[in-house]
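ugh ok so i messed up the first submission bc i forgot one of the chains. this is the corrected input, ALL of the components this time, i swear. 619 residues overall. if the numbers dont match what u have on ur side tell me asap before i send this to the collaborators (the ones from the other lab, u know who)
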Amino acid sequence: MAHQIARATRLRFFTLSILLTFMLLTLIAVSVSIGASMIPIDKVFLCLLRVECDESARLIVELRVARTLAALLTGGMLAVSGVLVQGISRNPLADPFILGVSSTALAALSAFLLLDPTLIAYRQLSILIAFAGALLGYFLTTSISLLAGGTGFSLILSGIAVSALFSGVSHVLLFLVQDKLRHPYVFLLMGSTSRVLPQDLVYLAISLVLSVAIVFAFNIPKALNAYLFGESYLAQLGYRVRIVATVSAFVASLLAGSSVAVVGIVGFIGLAAPHITRIILRTSDHRATIVLSLLTGSSLAILSDIVARLVSIASARGEIPLGVVTSVIGAPFLAYLVIKGGKK
Amino acid sequence: MKVRLEKVVFNYDAVRVLDNVSVEFEGGRVSCLIGPNGSGKTTTLKLIASLIEPVEGVVYIDGKDLRTYSASEIAKLFSYSDPHLPKTLPMRVIDFILTSRYPFHRVFQYFESREDIEVIETVARELGVEHLLDRKLEQLSSGELQRVVLAASLARKPRILLLDEPSAFLDVRYRFEIMDIVKKYTEKYSVVTVVAMHDLYLASLYCDKVILLSKGKIVALGNPQEIFSSSSIEEVYGVRVETLRVDGSLVAAIPLPPHEKVSPDSLSQQNLKDS
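and heres the new structure output, hopefully the right one now
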């Protein structure tokens, strides 16, 4: 019996990996084919495959690819961050956006932009600042929650408080500095992939690869599996609870911070991707959810980005931020989770 | 294998929970901690599992100070089963039992080994939870969950088995079954088994040694016959305890209400007065 179940679980994991990868590739293909400039799809792919490519087509395709990859990386990063914070808080409603981590990251970045507006061009530095802001935000939210009794709901409520406060602070700071920024500051507040340059992708990729490497080096997925059954249970198995919690919070903040620094605040992907993954996988085994969430998160982000672009093309009023689309899709999902959780 | 507590003191928020407790637990025997709520049963289990450290005194495992053992040695030695499992994120029974195999994995091992699955298979069959392996934990009844928790404990092949109320939510048949399994396992692998128990009747049937705790102190200690026929148990609990001799040497303890016999008349009169 146990053997059959273990085999079925492995099979499920591999099948889902293949299906999700296939879906992601399809979405990538759709994403690079859609844009405001109407160049024929066959031309796009000829250009991508380096068969033949004129200068104007090359530029357009390059931007579309950059944008698609930005959505892919951001989605994956937010999803992994979501899996980690849901694990360490043992709270199915947690996500870097809801816990206020994204907002404090942006507030930190905005404060430094006010001091020196050229900072936005230095990606490494802005990522570091946003990362520090995210860490502080995580610390702040968990501290308030502990003061309020450390329950699941106190964590979410203090997250909402921190998130509202620092979104406001970021808004004010960015409002003050807006004349000196190259792009409308709304794109940082609501997140957008439309202004991402190919060279920015490297930094996103580095922080994602680094984070995943840390997660596996500390064998965090297994530790989180045990952590779900309580701190003393994890300690009993010979793990050091402090290290597991600190490393997870650190990586979750790095991922949320760097995505905020490059793309801006994109909410709800960190919430939805882990849940969708759990539902199709039928378990929270982190060894599998971390890997599959990367794929679901990327797919969700690219899908939302496609929707954002379609709306912009249809309205012909310029770009609509990605964060707006994810909120419209994600908030009902949150409501669904609240109703489902409340019934238990 | 032998566990010895020597003059152990533990405070919880400046309240003394264990006061100068010295006791020895031997391998191959089921030792039971009994006593009213708050007498220090769970605290004693957690001290042995080194989940908390004594303020004073020492816990010895085979004559060696518990503090000299490394975290991974302790993980392979003990299993302490907490009856309260958080179930906020959905996990299946097999996923839960698999976590208890982690102490046996190599440092960077990510996937379970064939041996892990085999151990789970055997333990699940012994405890009759085979059909539950693919279910989610939150779908289990409290009795099923209790058996799953014990299965996870045994899947660790512990040398020292610490159980907190293993029979609390079980119906009478599973109470006997689960204690039979615990007893068999204890004798077969000469494990040191310490069980915190509320059910005096079950304790009298299955324990080889009974430790009666009250307000953090050991009041009485001995085999079930001695303890359950002594007056100390009645004093500590404030109830009457009758003992019955069954099957020759076996003694069954039956707790009875402290007051005189309740007659239907006195009850109805009481009700009339209240209304």
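quick check: Chain A has 14 helices and no strands. that seems consistent at least. The domain at 74-343 of chain A is CATH 1.10.3470.10 (ABC transporter involved in vitamin B12 uptake, BtuC).
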